[in-house]
Structures are given as C-alpha cells and as structure tokens.
Amino acid sequence: MNDELPVPLQNEASLDARFAQRPHAYARLRQIADMMDQAIVQGCTADQAEARAVEQIRHLGRDLY
C-alpha cells in the first residue's frame, strides 16, 4: 500500500491558493485541524479525534451549499 501523498503537478494550485477564494472555509478547516490537535492533547484517541473532525467537515460541507 502506498501511503505517500501524490506529488502535485507543476500547474496545480496549492491548497492555500485554492482556499484564498474561500476565506470562511479556509478558516473553518484551520479550526478543525486545531480541534483535532487539542482532542489528542486532551487524551482522545486518533480515532475519536478523526470522528470529531469528520463530523465538523460534514457541517462545513452543508454550509458551503
């Protein structure tokens, strides 16, 4: 199994560039990443932190449409 991230193509925009057009979504994704880190610090397992993040990303997805 290959766990490495794909190498971006030369003409492919970075996530920062892509989310520059969506500052609310970008800020929310940063909050979700911070929430995951904090959950681990508070003793949650990686699975629990992931479940929290997935829930928050679903909320974000609903808000985008």
Topology diagram in text:
Layout: H1 15-19, H2 23-41, H3 46-64
Helix pairs in contact: 2-3
Structural key phrases:
mainly alpha, 65 residues
Please describe what this structure looks like.
The protein is mainly α. The protein has one domain. It contains 3 helices and no strands. It has helices at residues 15-19, 23-41, 46-64. Helix 2 (23-41) runs antiparallel to helix 3 (46-64). The longest helix has 19 residues, at 23-41. It starts with 14 loop residues before the first helix and ends with a helix.
Oligomer description = single chain
Q: In DSSP terms, counting alpha (H) and pi (I) runs of 4 or more, how many helices?
A: 3
Percent range for β-strand residues: under 5%
Radius of gyration: 14 Å
Brief description of this entry?
The chain has 65 residues and is mainly α. It is 66% helix and 0% strand.
